Amino acid sequence: MLQETAIERAESGIFGTGFGWLVSPFLAERERWMLWLPVVLGGGIGCYFLLKAEPPLWIGWAGLCGAFLLGLLLYRSLNGRLLALLLCAFALGFAAAQYRSQTVGTLFLERQIGPVSVEGQLVRIEQRPGDVRLTLEHPRIGRLPDEHTPRRVRAVVRGDMPDVSHGDLVRLRAVLRPPPGPSAPGGFDFQRHAYFEGIGGVGYAVGDVTRLAEGAPSGFWVGIDRLRRTVTARIRTALPGETGAMAAALLTGDRSGLPERALDTMRDSGLAHLLAISGLHMGLVAGTVFFVLRLLLACHSGLALNQPIKKWAALAALAASFVYLLLAGATVPTQRAFLMTGLVLVAVLIDRVAISLRLVAWAAAAILLLAPEVMLGPSFQMSFAAVLMLVAFYEANRERFAALRGGAGPLRLGLLYLVGLCATSVLATAGTLPFAAYHFNQVALYGVLANMAAVPLTAFWIMPWGVLALLLMPLGLEGLALVPMGLGIEGVLAVGAWISALPGAVLAVPAVPAAGLLAISLGGLWLALWRRSWRFVGLAPIAVGLALPWFTAQPVLLVDGEAKLVALRTTKGLAFSSTRAATFTAESWLQRAAQPHRIAMPRPGRGGRDGIACDALGCIGAVGALKIAIIRDAQALPEDCRRADIVISLVPVRRRCPSAQLVVDRFDLWRHGAHALYLEAGTIRLDSVGRDRGIRPWAPDPAARRKREAQ
């Protein structure tokens, strides 16, 4: 009765006129409103990152105060309170992102320097196939003044490495540069990622690394780093080769021993998520400890009947999760996984439903407020998409599954397990598929099949033996558990090799526009968070988002921001001005174009091909009826400026180009970064990284920097 009265009042209020069909189900699901808190927070965060210029620091907090005052003024109105709460959450997300951006305050190098001597304290050592990546804190870089020195720099070392540990003071000679921006408009912004990581310079070492001083032996992180190295070494001793390398990746997060072939196999089969310690691994470790300990305690009737053994098991699982967090290096994704797992276990301790959408919402809100920038990354998006899909499905069907399990025999229970396994694999894969397509431009088509075999093997065999191996390691008996663990790992690798070898195992996807991912995300949230039939409206934006990549115009020309590489679209795909220059940029362009390999423009003097002709000074191509000149040498400017419709010059243009509708030269690339040219219905559209990002703390204005240098 009270609910009907509230609905009637709302229908006659601000939102009532003509919107009763929408307001009624909305008010009927009032218990689900809280689930939208992280969504609205994310809206404020996204609004902040979409801005082209940094807003005044006070604006976010002013918006928050204004929304709060609005809530006080409209407190007697249900619609007013709801509107004020939405505005408060949105403003809070905006303010959190703005505050985080301002407090990070990462200083970038202003130009490439080196080879130069670099000294600093090791804060991160990342073993990778073929090299080691070192992060140094508070570095001294040659004669660079302290006020121009970043707080952290990162360098790749390919030579011999001394036995160094977290906290050691080291010296190396390195070539360093500012973190690069996106390789194309709309591409991954590594510069923004580095800004929030506190990394102001990246590069590579020239020569060997020297350890100048050992880290403080009493330092906490020094001890953890040494423990990780010891555990990894003992795992690889007991299990040599790929098997041991994967066991180390699962237990300590060290993937350095995995060959590139194994990484490609796992990626192409849709099993790459097993190699990155995340919510799955943290949940398996906690679940193993929880259920095994609870089973052992239940064997004692006195304890089982008189003591809260479930809470004891939850407390032990929480402690085990924390140890695993430290052992895995406490990376940001692992911290998020620990937070999610910890909230589940705390819910058990306080007698609440352990896994629910409310728990997922609170975990997401906490993470977004603590580190708003993670919302833009694949780890956060994919992990929460998978969790949301699974929890929403099983929460909606909890009573149905309980009824099916009631009085079921072994055969029915086995069938229910297989159905649940299939549903879990399908839902998790479907939830993460759009984000994999957006960030990695590829989809493992048989990922569901691979996960149906590999995930149960990991959950019920590999990780329990791994936990036992860690417990036995202080006694020197880890080999007893690592051997059976290795057998399970070999099974997972065999599944990955089989699936990745199937025809069409990987579908390359062209660049997904951000609008498409947003439509899919909002549609998926609408579908998962509501319970009534109106949730199926969310299928419409999902369909639109999935179709957008295939109907979005692709760039007909791409120019590297450092003037090293140009790619022109032909009937066969993107043709590149070089097959060796700017390797990382070329790979990014190929990935975004869903193109398997580079096609080279014709060499000078070899005649034309695919509508492109080149000489020593540059190339001439065509896009539709427009002639494009790609100029490498200033000597080509007088002629090409009279003949070409579009001039792309890798050298400065200091003259008029009377025939050109569009001119992009070295100065434009320096100011605005990489450029992309589109031809839509005969109209030329030029986009650039600089115009796409604007001037932000992680995207400084090069003209302002030049002005500072001149002063």
Compute the number of helices: 26
- Distance between the ends: 74 Å
Regions with pLDDT < 50 over 5+ consecutive residues? 1-8, 10-18
For this structure, the quaternary state is single chain
Strand content: 15-25%
Percentage of residues assigned to helices? 40-55%
Q: Any idea how many domains?
A: 5
Compute the number of strand runs: 19
Question: How are the strands ordered across the major sheet?
Answer: 12-11-10-9-18-19
Radius of gyration: 28 Å
Mean pLDDT: 85
Derived from helix and strand composition plus strand pairing, the structural class reads: alpha+beta
| Overall form | globular
Biggest beta sheet attributes: 6 strands, mixed
What does this structure look like?
There is one protein chain. With about 700 residues, this protein is α+β, with helices and mostly antiparallel strands. The chain has five domains: about 1-105, no CATH class; about 115-215, OB fold (Dihydrolipoamide Acetyltransferase, E2P); about 225-510, no CATH class; about 515-550; about 555-710, no CATH class. The chain is about 55% helix and about 15% strand. It has a six-stranded mixed beta sheet. Strand 13 and strand 14 form a beta hairpin. The longest helix is centred in the middle third of the chain and has 31 residues, at about 410-440. It starts with a helix and ends with a helix.
